[in-house]
Amino acid sequence: IAANTSDMDLTEEHARLGAITGIITYADGSTLNLFTEFGVAQVAEVDFDLDNATPADGALRLAATKVIRAQKKALGAVPFTEVHAFVGDTFFDQLLTHKEVRDTYKGWSEAQILRESYIGKNRSENPMFEFGGIVWENYGEIDGEGVGIPTTKARFFPIGVPNLFKTYQSPADYIETVNTLGQRLYAKQWPMPNDKGINGELQMNELQLCTRPGVLMGARNT
């Protein structure tokens, strides 16, 4: 069961990433498009122009500001605490070495970012730092199965919005689970014919949602 549980964890993470992008893809290839379901337009990707060898002064900060403004507009009067970004590897590396980022931190105690590639209250296994009012986290790719953030992309979402992301769990398809509250995981065993062994099953029936898909935004490095 423990080995299968780790597979379920990966499936759950994949669905949650789908909720952040606004399009959830299931194992059979079917998709749930949250923009279509909620009747909202998907915001166009922001070009951060990270491949530009001679960017205009302040251009990077301006691009970040545009993201924050768009988030505020989508939320209306609903407050939020910060904007978070899950970032692909190439995007993160280009951002971390960008002249505007490095010049911002040089000469300040926060310059540890130039040594360690992360800063802030949420130290984790993923490198992260804050710039332009956005917390950038190098989420990258978990495995080779498409779970993660594409290497040249970034996905933005606000933090601190009540019930922005929700998980719904339905009961397993067993007689004993009829009219019961859904649980995250269900494990069941039953005997094979003629008592030749035991069948086993582990299942998870979850729906991951962003309740305000209009706030979901993406960016590309160039």
Describe, in plain words, how this protein is organized in 3D.
The chain is of the alpha+beta class and 222 residues long. The protein has one domain. It is elongated. The mean pLDDT is 89. The chain has a 6-stranded mixed sheet. It has helices spanning 2-21, 34-38, 59-75, 89-96, 99-105, 113-116; strands at 23-25, 31-33, 46-47, 82-87, 128-131, 134-138, 153-159, 165-169, 186-191, 198-203, 206-210, 217-220. It contains 6 helices and 12 strands.
Break the fold down into its secondary structure elements and pairings.
Layout: H1 2-21, E1 23-25, E2 31-33, H2 34-38, E3 46-47, H3 59-75, E4 82-87, H4 89-96, H5 99-105, H6 113-116, E5 128-131, E6 134-138, E7 153-159, E8 165-169, E9 186-191, E10 198-203, E11 206-210, E12 217-220
Parallel strand pairs: 3-12, 4-6
Antiparallel strand pairs: 1-2, 4-7, 5-6, 7-12, 8-11, 9-10
Descriptive labels:
222 residues; alpha+beta; 6-stranded mixed β-sheet; two-stranded antiparallel ribbon; elongated
Q: Tell me the strand percentage band.
A: 25-35%
Provide the spatial order of strands within the biggest beta sheet: 3-12-7-4-6-5
State the major sheet.
Answer: 6 strands, mixed
Tell me the overall shape.
elongated
> What is the count of DSSP helices, taking H or I runs of 4+ residues?
6
- Helix fraction bin: 25-40%
What is the β-strand count? Answer: 12
